[in-house]
Amino acid sequence: MPDLFAAALALPGLWWLTIAIIAAGVVRGFAGFGSAMIIMPVAGSVLDPFVAITFLIVVECWGPLINFRDAWRVGQRLDALRLLGGALVGVPMGLWLLSLINPSNFGWAVSLVVLFLLVILMTGWRYHGRIRSHTLVAVGGLGGLLGGFVGVPGPPVIIMYMASTKSIAVIRANFLLYLLGIDILMLIIFIFSDLLNPTAVFVGLLMTPIYIIANAIGAYFFNPNAEVVFRRLAYLVISTSAISGLLM
């Protein structure tokens, strides 16, 4: 245990990671998405690829649980299951691509992908087709691919749902169920592939209470009438994190 504490304190960019965790938790608790787009540019710039994703999934598996009961009640569980069905294929493909990338380029890759996805979100482009079962599976697969490759599985699902007629509360709940399922899936793959870094797991567990509290704060202030204002604030936080990742 003392060795893990020493390794945790020596982890590069520990304070930056802490700040990112707090900001990501508040955004995730309010909007139901966006946390990985805040955490990964910072984590990817200071940690090796699989270490960064290990840190992310350990934190994200626990953080949203405080809002799970409401998401299970409000969300459309069949939709989330179809999204995760696609992710079962997409996540392993993304992890395979991650194994091919030069670790020194990972931070840049994450930040550039996040900025690209953020631009798409901010331009207001949305999927306007009918959301059918195969659409959910395909979008979930694309999200899983991005999740395995750069740790950011949410944007494809966001783009699909934001043009729908579903209420903000339902969309937020579906996001939470889908993203939690992705985290659990990736954690299982990492365990059986012996990819879990002990230090990253330990630091992730240490930061989990901080992330849970931040999630609770974001959920407390959730107000569908303030969704537009908060989304703009989330975009600002995400872009700041991505640009910071490029500069680290």
Features of this protein?
mainly alpha, about 250 residues, 12 helices, single chain, globular
Task: Write a compact overview of the structure shown.
The chain has 248 residues and is mostly helical.
Task: Give me the secondary-structure topology.
Elements: H1 2-9, H2 14-31, H3 35-46, H4 49-62, H5 68-74, H6 77-100, H7 103-123, H8 133-150, H9 155-161, H10 168-192, H11 198-220, H12 227-247
Helix pairs in contact: 1-11, 2-3, 2-11, 2-12, 3-4, 3-7, 3-12, 4-10, 4-11, 5-10, 6-8, 6-10, 7-12, 8-9
Helical content stands at over 70%
**Mean pLDDT reading:** 82
Largest sheet: none
**Tally of helical runs:** 12
- CA(first)-CA(last) distance: 30 Å
Find the count of extended strands (DSSP E, 2+ residues): 0
- List the uncertain runs: none
Q: What is the CA-atom radius of gyration, in angstroms?
A: 17 Å
Number of domains: 1
Task: Please provide the ordered H/E string of secondary-structure elements.
Answer: HHHHHHHHHHHH
Q: Look at the helices and sheets and give the structural class.
A: mainly alpha
Beta strand % = under 5%
The backbone outline, from C-alpha atoms, is globular
